[in-house]
C-alpha cells in the first residue's frame, strides 16, 4: 500500500507538481475550477478530498479549491487521479 496523504506527502506532491508540471496545474484551474482566464497557478496543498490552488488572473492571486470526484485512498491514488484529471482537462480544453 502507498503512503496516506499527510501534510508531508501533500508538500512533496505540491513541490513536484509546481516544479515539474506547472502547465497541468493551470489546466486544473481552467477546467476544474472554471477559471478560464488563469494565467499561472500553483498547487498549495492536497488532501483526500481535493486540492487548493493559487491562481493568477490579470495580476491578482485567487485561492481556489478543486474537489476530486472521489476520496483519495493514498498517494498512489493521488498520482493516478492527477494524471487522469490532466488527460480530461487536455481533452476538454482543446
TrEMBL record:
Q: Where is the DUF2470 domain?
A: 10-85
Recorded superkingdom:
Bacteria
What Pfam family does this protein match (any one)? DUF2470
Source organism phylogeny: Bacteria, Bacillati, Cyanobacteriota, Cyanophyceae, Oscillatoriophycideae
For this entry, the protein name equals: DUF2470 domain-containing protein
Amino acid at each position: 500500500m502507498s503512503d496516506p496523504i499527510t501534510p508531508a506527502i501533500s508538500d512533496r506532491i505540491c513541490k513536484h507538481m509546481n516544479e515539474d508540471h506547472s502547465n497541468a496545474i493551470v489546466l486544473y484551474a481552467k477546467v476544474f475550477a472554471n477559471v478560464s482566464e488563469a494565467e499561472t497557478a500553483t498547487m498549495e496543498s492536497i488532501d483526500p478530498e481535493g486540492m487548493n490552488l493559487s491562481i493568477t488572473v490579470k495580476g491578482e492571486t485567487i485561492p481556489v479549491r478543486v474537489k476530486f470526484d472521489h476520496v483519495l485512498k493514498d498517494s498512489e491514488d493521488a498520482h493516478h487521479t492527477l494524471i487522469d484529471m490532466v488527460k480530461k482537462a487536455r481533452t476538454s480544453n482543446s
